[in-house]
Write a structure and sequence with these properties.
Its main location: membrane. This is Fatty acid desaturase domain-containing protein. GO terms for molecular function: iron ion binding; stearoyl-CoA 9-desaturase activity. The chain is mainly alpha-helical. Helices cover about 60% and strands about 0% of the residues. It has 19 helices and four strands. Helix 3 packs across helix 15, helix 4 packs across helix 9 and helix 14 crosses helix 15. The radius of gyration is 24 Å and the shape is globular. About 15% of the residues have low confidence.
């Protein structure tokens, strides 16, 4: 299972047009120049994304177990386990939306150390494990050798889904939005962005672009770097052991409820919600063929214009992940913590500012972002 966008590779006509003319031109009976073939195959190799088969198998099993968890939820699960699972699910989603996305990826507000630590724990409860980590951790050698040095080596080489790794991928997504270099296929369709992007490795070109993303602000954040260093241990304790052990140990629920509801069903929900952050523009986006007759600054408050606004001005803390603006659980969460002084410098933009920006952009010819 591999893919690449043929439009990125130079076409035969384009290569032919670049060949020198006159005496130096290639004769019809001459074989094609090796550089042409090398260029095409190099571009193909650079943009090709192979399947991560351990990830494919892992997500197939997770979907089966999670769907079965819906049946167990209504048949073998106590009320306290339902509440416990709901809270862990909510915390995991907030860790990605209010934490990794709005705080660390886009810096839409500033947070105290206490709030950042809380959001770091919440993001760990989201259980983000990327395709590279799944593949490396699935190798037999990694499972047999459980020494500290081996785990540290795995942690350095794999993208584990920590805040640092999630933010780096999301920043590349914004930088290359709707191009072939976007790791979340924003130039294709919803299924590519929601599903295929998470079961394929990055192309060599995308790996190079990912390494070039500026992460200096997160590298200066001790809480983020602490989580990145110990993510494997925190993942096992907080995300795997806690949800399974708590229903069995503390209130004597069934094994089915612990494994299929508190773990599998919760994992399935949180993962898909987190993935939706990078693919929601296909669901709530404005149809590029649809032209509004009365649109000036409506994109600020209307759901249909949400992706255009978020990808234009991502620093606005009120821009929701799922098509909403100025409302929703994550926005309310940030406002509550702002009210008690834990979140400060909330960035947003007013309707008047949008009107002025549009006017100045038209008058000066400068980009509206400026």
């Amino acid at each position: 299972m591999a893919d690449h966008n043929e439009n990125f590779a130079p076409s035969a006509e384009h290569l032919k047009a670049q060949q020198p003319s006159g005496d130096g031109a290639t004769k019809p009976d001459q074989p094609p120049q090796p550089t042409e073939t090398a260029s095409v195959s190099s571009s193909s190799r650079d943009t090709k994304r192979e399947a991560s088969w351990p990830s494919v198998l892992f997500y197939i099993h997770l979907n089966i177990l999670g769907v079965y968890g819906i049946f167990v939820l209504f048949s073998h699960t106590s009320l306290i386990t339902c509440v416990f699972t709901f809270l862990l699910t909510l915390f995991g989603i907030l860790g990605v939306t209010a934490g990794a996305h709005r705080l660390w990826a886009h810096r839409t507000y500033e947070a105290t150390a206490l709030l950042r630590f809380t959001l770091m724990i919440f993001q760990t409860l989201a259980g983000q494990v990327t395709r590279n980590a799944t593949e490396r951790f699935g190798k037999r050698s990694a499972l047999l050798d459980c020494s500290k040095s081996c785990l540290q080596k795995l942690n350095r080489k794999a993208h584990w889904g920590s805040i640092y790794d999630w933010v780096r991928m999301h920043r590349l997504h914004h930088e290359k939005f709707r191009t072939v270099d976007d790791p979340y296929y924003s130039d294709k369709d919803f299924m590519h962005a929601q599903v295929f992007a998470n079961i394929r490795k990055l192309s060599p070109r995308q790996e190079q672009l990912l390494a070039a993303v500026d992460m200096s602000d997160l590298e200066a954040d001790g809480i983020v770097m602490f989580q990145r260093r110990f993510y494997w241990a925190m993942y096992l304790v907080l995300f795997v052991l806690l949800p399974i052990n708590a229903p069995l140990e503390y209130w004597g629920d069934t094994v089915q409820a612990a494994i299929f509801v508190a773990f599998s069903l919760r994992y399935l929900i949180v993962l898909n919600v987190a993935w939706l952050i990078n693919s929601a523009h296909f669901v709530w986006g404005l149809d590029k063929n649809h032209k509004q007759s009365d649109s000036n600054m409506v994109f600020v408050v209307t759901k249909s214009y949400w992706p255009q606004y978020h990808y234009l001005l991502p620093f606005d803390y009120q821009s929701g992940e799922f098509g909403n603006y100025g409302s929703g659980c994550t926005t309310a969460f940030i406002r509550i913590f702002a009210a008690i002084g834990q979140a400060t410098k909330l960035q947003t933009i007013t309707t008047e500012a949008v009107k002025r920006g549009l006017t100045m952009a038209v008058d000066s010819g400068r980009p509206i972002v400026e």
